[in-house]
């Protein structure tokens, strides 16, 4: 879908109202919803009123006085941006008088504006220039000799945009964008009258202020004052395509603005339903990795990981991988190989990899990185509600009265949704946060959590059961809802269980560390505060009781009638962009696409017929099981597409031992990631800019990914999988990903109505999409649960095995931050390192002092699994006894410390709880020293690749 | 396969279902879970654990696995 570069700007936001008003503007009749501004009504009638301080992403402000109009029967010249349309009005947007007033306004602006239009970066995209043209400005009487701001200093501190105060017209759009759209409140207008200028924080440079570099202000700025550096470098774009962000599970729609094959900038798509014109620092700015010099664009092979790489042709690489897989199966049996699909690849690519494994390898040893993040969501929501997905659209939050955030940090990990949530909170919705850390939402500008239940890591289940206890024992159940929609026996079992005295907040306070009164207050608020919605993240799933906690969340929502309409629901915030999609596409070893168990004969037969093979009815190995099987000698080959299990999976030394035990590892990726350092075949992948396909976000929204440049290494990832399949004797001959989607739709009832044509028509579509819901399903479980009757489960708290002891007296929990993404392979190769150049260990002042640790010191973090060394950051955000780090850099080795404890139902690792000791040290840990040596060797072996080209 | 790890995993499953007031439902839940989510070689190793190191399995897991053999993989 090609779109025009400049969208129509209606000046003020669209209004929703059941009442319509009809009026006349410039002789045209126009009918608009009540509350619409005259400016917007005029635009709809075809008259674009001149404007500078208004734009349709922001509430009107009425400061520039350029948008004046005349209204019959009214005196003066009201501003059309702030005047609502009324029935029967007769409005003129153009007259001699209006023209002369506007010209006067423009003259004042221009008298204090550098006239370097020809060499200005915004030339061709400047509203001030446009308005000078529209108002017919021909001369400026005041001259440039008077007082002006032309010598002001530029602020170049932000790596992605510059701020040139000389060009500022003080329209306030940036300030409002930062407040209304982003919710950060980083900007103010400082100074008065002529002196006034935009300023981040307390007259600080952008990088030192609260600014999170979302770019909303840059988008809103009508001049070159706030300007992307990429536009300054490359000039204005000439064409654009709509695509989808490849970072987080929000799945923002973007306009890739191009010059030939060169991306000039990415701007959030106004009509994108996931983001409604907003973006974050990753999606908007951190795309430079796609053309980073470290991209590997030639296939490579080697027989041992101590050998140098050898660049080979695609044919040779594929033939070698296929022959190795065949050899291993002949030697160790059919089940000795498997593969991992990627949550960063498209639905079509993921589908193809699982098809290759099930139909080509002949086993079900396929898994995906959702194993290590949201597999408990799949299990827990599947068991209780009947489907493995969030129940709402993001927009639904606009109807929530109470928002319960559990183990998620939306402002960092899902920033655009975080902004939408904050907007609702500023409008007055109540907030409950259950998190060991004082995340930003607990207290940020104009937002304060009504309850922050700062529980001890690993005690979620005790907490959710205590909340349920209050709801049951204080008579706050939605009895009619339960009677109508839920299984009676399971409800009674659950009710009797949670009502037991040992599950009361008073009894569990000793476990969770949270005072009973707070728990009671939060439970009452959730149950009685109106529409209550739960949003949760990996702080829920990545525990030994992750699945139990997801079940507990669903129990709570059902018990209070909070599923099945707008404003409520159970919403997992997905980590990577296509986690939802990769799960939907049958990436789990026990499930075919659409979450149908492999042992189900009818489903299996459907696929057997379509694929022309016999399928194994037994579930395959999950990722941690693959590692265990490798170490015991029965799993010897792996096809790993677009994942970096060495860096992202827990207990690194266990993972690398397992990989070292395998005989053939095929890695398909855009960079030589940590896993590739253990690989024998490297197949170059393609970035999201280089291929067509679809991603599915956390609200089940399927959006198009569109190719804007050719694959650097010749093939898109789906083509590489197809080559490998054919070499293994499984015939595939797709010529476009849309054909793969058609096959998915034919075989998967919840996708039956999905096609590229439909997505193009609707912009995006939320599954289930079929005959019953041809335009998709925004809200699930409206008339009843997908599984039939909702099922409650008893949620007994079981303490984790990771207990603190004298040797390991602290709890380490891990997480992520705004500027970096997952293993960081992409974001580390962008200027986002300006915000986060290394992983640090956050520690409470009390714990730090006890150990003689000062801010910035090197500290050793030791667990039962291993040891690593990081810089300490002493921080009040932590509670005493708990330390925190991120895993964005391989050398920091966060996962050297995490253990292979895992969720009981899904083996999702317990990343969030590791017992550790932290002590000051003077040198890197032994693992880090080994890693450094290993890494240097591997990079040397890579360097030899090009020179080995063609050598036998 | 690492038998200690598998024993631990089986016992974790046991602890979830053990809380159910209906003992039959709990026992059936344990075997069904293992049947639906464990790959055959893991289940084969579990058979061995049941024969040789059953003492390390929690009582409810032992009872469940002994009460019903539907979780056992087909003979190779
Ligand atoms: S980039 Fe975003 S956070 Fe920073 S000042 Fe602009 S709107 Fe505010
Ligand atoms: S920086 Fe841009 S948006 Fe902000 S006040 Fe100045 S001209 Fe307006
Ligand atoms: S919020 Fe997520 S999807 Fe949206 S731009 Fe940021 S990283 Fe991309
Ligand atoms: S656009 Fe209406 S006053 Fe500026």
Explain what this protein looks like in three dimensions.
The complex is a heterodimer of chains A (952) and B (76). Chain A has 952 residues and is α/β, with parallel strands linked by helices. Chain A is globular, with a radius of gyration of 29 Å. In chain A, the strands form 10 sheets. A 7-stranded mixed sheet of chain A has the order 14-13-28-27-26-15-16. In chain A, strands 33-35-34-37-32-36 form a 6-stranded mixed sheet. Chain A contains 30 helices and 37 strands. In chain A, helix 13 crosses helix 17, helix 16 packs across helix 17 and helix 22 crosses helix 24. The two termini of chain A are 46 Å apart. The mean pLDDT of chain A is 90. Chain A folds into 5 domains: 133 residues, Ubiquitin-like (UB roll), CATH 3.10.20; 130 residues, Alpha-Beta Plaits, CATH 3.30.70; 240 residues, Rossmann fold; 186 residues, Dimethylsulfoxide Reductase, domain 2 (3-Layer(aba) Sandwich), CATH 3.40.228; 125 residues, Barwin-like endoglucanases, CATH 2.40.40. Chain B is mainly α. Chain B has one domain. Chain B is built from 4 helices and no strands. In chain B, helix 1 runs antiparallel to helix 2 and helix 2 crosses helix 4. The longest helix of chain B is centred in the N-terminal third of the chain and has 16 residues. Chain B is globular and about 35 Å long. The mean pLDDT of chain B is 90. The chains are: A alpha/beta (952), B mainly alpha (76). The interface between A and B is medium-sized, with 35 and 22 residues. Bound molecules: iron/sulfur cluster (SF4) (3 copies) and FE2/S2 (inorganic) cluster. The site of FE2/S2 (inorganic) cluster has 12 residues of chain A, from loops.
Compile the SSE list and pairings.
The complex is a heterodimer of chains A (952) and B (76).
Chain A: E1 2-3, E2 20-25, E3 28-33, H1 38-44, E4 70-71, E5 90-92, H2 96-111, H3 127-134, E6 161-163, H4 173-182, E7 187-190, E8 197-200, H5 216-220, E9 226-228, H6 229-234, E10 239-244, E11 253-259, E12 262-268, H7 281-285, E13 300-301, E14 310-311, H8 314-332, E15 337-341, H9 347-361, E16 366-368, H10 375-384, E17 402-406, H11 410-413, H12 415-426, E18 430-434, E19 443-444, E20 447-448, E21 451-453, H13 460-473, H14 479-485, H15 488-499, H16 505-512, H17 516-528, E22 532-536, H18 538-541, H19 546-559, E23 569-572, H20 579-584, E24 591-592, E25 596-597, H21 601-611, H22 623-631, E26 637-641, H23 645-648, H24 652-661, E27 664-669, E28 681-684, E29 693-696, E30 701-705, H25 717-727, H26 737-747, H27 756-762, E31 765-766, E32 810-815, E33 840-843, H28 845-850, E34 858-862, E35 867-874, E36 882-886, H29 894-897, E37 914-920, H30 926-947
Parallel strand pairs in A: 2-5, 15-16, 15-26, 17-18, 17-22, 18-21, 22-23, 26-27, 27-28, 32-36, 33-35
Antiparallel strand pairs in A: 1-10, 2-3, 4-5, 6-9, 7-8, 10-11, 11-12, 13-14, 13-28, 19-20, 24-25, 29-30, 30-31, 32-37, 34-35, 34-37
Helix pairs in contact in A: 8-25, 9-25, 9-26, 10-19, 13-16, 13-17, 13-19, 16-17, 22-24
Chain B: H1 3-18, H2 23-37, H3 40-52, H4 59-67
Helix pairs in contact in B: 1-2, 2-4
The structure holds iron/sulfur cluster (3 copies) and FE2/S2 (inorganic) cluster.
One iron/sulfur cluster binds at residues 245, 247-248, 250-252, 275, 279-280, 282-283, 415-416 of chain A.
